[in-house]
Each structure stands twice: as structure tokens, then as C-alpha cells.
Amino acid sequence: MSEPAQRPESLGTVVVAGLANLAVAVAKAVAGVVSGSAAVLAEAAHSVADTTTEVLLFVALRRGARPATVQYPFGHGRETYLWAFIAATVTFVVGAGFSIFQGIDAIQSREEQIDPLAAYLVLAVSFVAEGVSLLRSVRQVRHRASRWRVPWLRIARYTPNTTLKAVLLEDSAALVGLVLAGAGVALSELTGSPLWDGLASIGIGALLLVVATTLAYSNVVHLVGRSAREAVREEIHRELSAVPNVRGVDELMTLQLGPEDILVAAKINFAEEAGRGEIEIAADEAERRLIAGNPAIRYVFLDPTRRTR
């Protein structure tokens, strides 16, 4: 899939997830108040955090897609990671903090009365909505995995597109959180004790802590400056080595400039008998092959050398 197609697809995934989270957040908040369940209120906070995150991810994709300028010759792709990091922080503070607080408050309260009907209904509808959003994210990851012929879970773990990773993790965490909330409500209803509802709320908060920490780390490493994935580097090395008059790749460096932008710099060892014109033709051929093989490669810098024997 070409770069122009990948960005709208990521954007569409974020928009769908954001709209789903917004509708679910309102429903959960109403159900949490009606039912009196701390776990359902924690899930409402979870959806609010996810909705805010989706807004920030939308901003990340829009700002990161701005074209290169004289001041920013390699574009604004890495700004995507900054906004995605802020989104992870929001999940950490808003979602996890509120959920854990609600859980502790529920456990300390001995008079919590839960009316489970509204809670069950909203949790069931929310599960369907979150499931639809997750399926869309998984479908996008599978499409990318087919390009590299690797398991889709590996792509989900190592993809430089942290906005896609954020949606995938948040939707997965949402489904787990809904199961925890449902279990907490059911056990509190059966036992008459708010302990289980409170523990479910704390569990949801802990889950959000894990998600937020994972996403924050993923974005920080790319903000610092990370190379392209190993599979991409290996493919680049193979393509360069296959160019006529190239005798070897002495040094290869890559840099992930953004979710869909890669910079390649390589020191190429050309054949001793190759003339200047042949080297220029070979360099052009190398760049053409790299970009044709992977449209995410935006910049190619080659340093021709001749290794002395």
C-alpha cells in the first residue's frame, strides 16, 4: 500500500474509534450513575480518556502529514510521536487515576447498592461497539503484515505507526475492561458486597496504566530517533546489493522520520572498473528500487566508495 493510501486509512481508523468511544462514554456515564457501579463509572472514565486520546491522535496525524519546508526539510512526521505521547499521558492521568480512585472509594464504602440492569445493558452494547472498532484496527494491521509476510501481532508490536498501535491497544483494553466491569457488577450483585465492584474498577485502572506506559515508551523511542525495523533494513540491504556494479554495502543507516517516512543513508562499495557515469546510473537505480519496494522510503542518500584490496 502506498503512503498516500496508508495515512487516510490510519486517519479513518482513528475517527471511527473516536466516534465509538464518545458514544460509549456517554452511555457508560449514565449507566454508572443509574446503577451506582464504580466499575461502570471507571469504564466511563476509560472511554472519556480514549475519546480524548483519539482527538489528540487525529491532531497528530494531521500535523505529522504536513509537507516539508525549508525550515523542516524532512517534514513533520516526528511531531506525530509528540502528540501520541501526550495522548498516552492523558490515558495515564484521566483514565487510570479516576478508575483507581473510584475503586478505592467503592471498597471503603459499605453502603453501595448496585442496580445491575442498566449496567449490563450498556456494557453489552459497548462490547459490540468496541469490538467493531477493534476489528477495523486488526484488519489494517493484517493488511500490513501480509506485505511483510509476518504474523500480524508482530506488526502490531513493532510498527512505527504508533497512532495505529494506540487504537489497537485501547480497543483491546476496552474489551478487557468491559469484561472486568461486568464481572465486578455480577459478583457484587451475588455477594451484596461492593468489594468486587471496587476491585474491578482498580483492575481497569491498572489495565490503563499498562496501556499508557506501553504507548508512552513506543513514542519516546521514536522521538529520540529510531531506525527502521529489522525486516525493512534487510530488504534495503538486499535491494542495494542487487544493483549492477555494486560490490557491497559497507554501511547502512536508517531513520524513522515519521509513521510512514524513512530516511536511508548508505555507503556503497562500487566495482573498481565502474566509471563515474555508471556509478551515477547505479545510484539512480538504487534509489528507484528502494522507493518502488517500499513507498515509506522518502529520502535516499548514497555515498559511493571503492574498497581497495
TrEMBL record:
Keyword annotations of the record: Membrane, Transmembrane, Transmembrane helix, Transport
Alphabetized PANTHER family for the sequence: HUEL-CATION TRANSPORTER, PROTON-COUPLED ZINC ANTIPORTER SLC30A9, MITOCHONDRIAL
Name of the protein in question: Cation diffusion facilitator family transporter
Gene3D superfamilies according to UniProt: Cation efflux protein transmembrane domain
SUPFAM superfamilies given in the database record: Cation efflux protein cytoplasmic domain-like, Cation efflux protein transmembrane domain-like
InterPro entries on file: Cation_efflux, Cation_efflux_CTD_sf, Cation_efflux_TM, Cation_efflux_TMD_sf, SLC30A9
Organism: Plantactinospora sonchi
Subcellular location: Membrane
UniProt topology in membrane: Multi-pass membrane protein
TM region(s), chain numbering: 81-101, 117-138, 167-187, 199-220
Annotated Cation efflux protein transmembrane domain residues: 14-223
Pfam families: Cation_efflux (PF01545)
